[in-house]
UniProtKB/TrEMBL annotation:
<keyword id="KW-0677">Repeat</keyword>
<comment type="function">
    <text>Plays a role in the control of cell shape and motility in the trabecular meshwork.</text>
</comment>
<feature type="domain" description="LCCL">
    <location>
        <begin position="23"/>
        <end position="130"/>
    </location>
</feature>
<feature type="domain" description="VWFA">
    <location>
        <begin position="306"/>
        <end position="492"/>
    </location>
</feature>
<dbReference type="GO" id="GO:0007605">
    <property type="term" value="P:sensory perception of sound"/>
</dbReference>
<dbReference type="InterPro" id="IPR036609">
    <property type="entry name" value="LCCL_sf"/>
</dbReference>
<dbReference type="GO" id="GO:0030198">
    <property type="term" value="P:extracellular matrix organization"/>
</dbReference>
<feature type="domain" description="VWFA">
    <location>
        <begin position="509"/>
        <end position="682"/>
    </location>
</feature>
<keyword id="KW-0732">Signal</keyword>
<dbReference type="GO" id="GO:0010811">
    <property type="term" value="P:positive regulation of cell-substrate adhesion"/>
</dbReference>
<feature type="compositionally biased region" description="Low complexity">
    <location>
        <begin position="167"/>
        <end position="215"/>
    </location>
</feature>
<keyword id="KW-0964">Secreted</keyword>
<dbReference type="InterPro" id="IPR036465">
    <property type="entry name" value="vWFA_dom_sf"/>
</dbReference>
<dbReference type="Pfam" id="PF03815">
    <property type="entry name" value="LCCL"/>
</dbReference>
<dbReference type="Pfam" id="PF00092">
    <property type="entry name" value="VWA"/>
</dbReference>
<keyword id="KW-1015">Disulfide bond</keyword>
<dbReference type="InterPro" id="IPR002035">
    <property type="entry name" value="VWF_A"/>
</dbReference>
Amino acid sequence: ALLTMKATVITTFLGVFLTCTYTAKEVTKKTKKAKLYVPQIDCDVKAGKIINPEFIAKCPPGCQDVKYRVYGTDIYASFSSICSAAIHSGIIDNTGGKILVQKVAGHSAYRGSFSNGVRSLSLPRWRESFLVSEGKPRKGVTYPSTLEYSSSKSTAVKSGKYLEYQTTPVPTPATQMATTTPTPTTTTTDPSSTVPQPNTTPAATRTTAAPAKTRPGPHRVRDMAFRGTSTSASIRNILRHNTGAQRQEPVASFQRAASSPVHLAMEIDSWKPGLSIFDTGFSSKEELNPKPLESNSQGNQNCKVDLSFLMDGSWSIGKRRFQLQKRFLGNVAQALGIGSAGPLMGIVQYGDDPSTEFNLKSYANSKDLRNAIEKIEQKGGLSNVGKALSFVNKNFFLDANGNRGGAPNVVVVIVDGWPTDRVEEASRLARESGINIFFVTVEAAAQSEKQNVIEPNFVDKVLMCRTSGFYSITVPSWFSLHKAVQPLVKRVCDTERLACSKTCLNAADIGFVIDGSSSVGTGNFRTVLQFVANVSKEFEISDTDTRIGAVQYTYEQRLEFSFDKYSTKQDVLNAIKRISYWSGGTSTGAAISYASEQLFSKSKPNKRKIMILITDGRSYDDVSLPAMAAHQNGVIAYSVGVAWAAPDELEAIASDPAKEHSFFVDEFDNLYRYVNQLIQNICTEFNSQPRN
């Protein structure tokens, strides 16, 4: 009986054990099968439109587009496109992918930068921010399989942390986003149709840092979030995905700044000057058969450019070669994939005089464009390319003709032989207007044409921005022109390398007006020069990009170097380092007048004229009238006051609004803290103004 009882107990125990084991396995199987469903979002979805405080989402391909705006660097204002911000940060590329989004508190002074093919814009402040990282779940966090959006039919937003830009101070400061559902609030008008104007932000909303001496408020509100960090290192962190490991570097040194993505693209440019397209590795099949894109009424969204082709209609080309040129243009139109959200294309025919065959808004698809090209009749005359470039620069890229503003402006010039007028000056003016110029030269000048050739080496003279090999294609014969279709389309659509597009870093003439009075002292003067150098090196410097000039003043004034003196960044930095301390009185008003006459009167017409004046005391003469005259002549003035500088004079010197254009530093050693903020304000002003 005892053995029977033991056997029964053992049998019961084994049965319970096997049942539990089986149940556990079934639960494990079900658990393993349960996978996180990742919701997909559109390219244009702003972070503020999604209420969830933390989520994983999937971005589709094709979000690297200027219309999907991004505000900030590393940390982004929630007014930004989530997917475009992820591309800008290097988490994904234009093919899309999964990302992790975390909402955080609002910030001041979002910094704009160019990274990974996306130009982010600056923004003075926003109530909510977000971070993007790789789309890997964090331990202990449950992610939603569906995202909760704010209502698209109402301007009221459910999230208390998403608040549109306001022109009045927000009464309660932004707080860190909690993991619980935020308290609903009502917001102002949805800003999706208009970009906020940064210069309306009151200074009271900025983070302040109190200097040791008692100073009036407006000139003390400049330290902000950049305290205690090297400016050069901070700027380089923006580009970390392109420049590799970071190292902190003293701002005081006169070292060359790390290259921007555009610079890197130019440095590794595989298109060598004089390289023929027939040495670029394109297969004959690719050359002969331009691949038509799939039918898409919106066009190729990966190639959003505004194109003008200058078509050679001179008599020297002949009727047969003119037909080959039209066939080439038709094939280019097909390969581009014309459409309202992609490339738009117009044609100007030139001979003795240029005329527009059709503009950017004439045709919205490749088929209609090709049919229109077939109907073009030859004009005849000489090959006056310079006159045609001037015509396009003044008349083609206008809003009335379909110019979209956000898309790069590109001109492709087709030349049979050589131009019969001067091209260099017209090309320079077009580049300074932000136009990227490509030359496709076919054959050499005919014997009868050589007497009319004015600039035999015109391609070398026009320079094509930074790298002439990229912007120049040489074709030995009109019967080989079809081989240039794919190489040309590839370059035209490579928007990251279109070097002539204007930005806040490459479209200014910047003149430094430096106080060299006795109160500064030799040691502090060197600190001022370090500040000047560290501001300068963050800009793209060349004869066609940003140019730098400098004036030193005491009772008298001295032109240290003019805008056209140096055309490379290293030469500018070396020139700043060589400036010798003068010593004397302080006549700031006379210095402003001198800079207006000696520097800014010689500024290029298509450049922003920016004056940065640094002083440490009250002027012996009036500053108001000279500053007013400079403002009226288009000079954007920034004043930087140190130690005993007079607040009223700093405001009088600065452009409106003075709070955005004037700075006060309690001592020279703290100048480095304001480099980043100065550049931020320059870019904010640039982004808020209309430009061609």
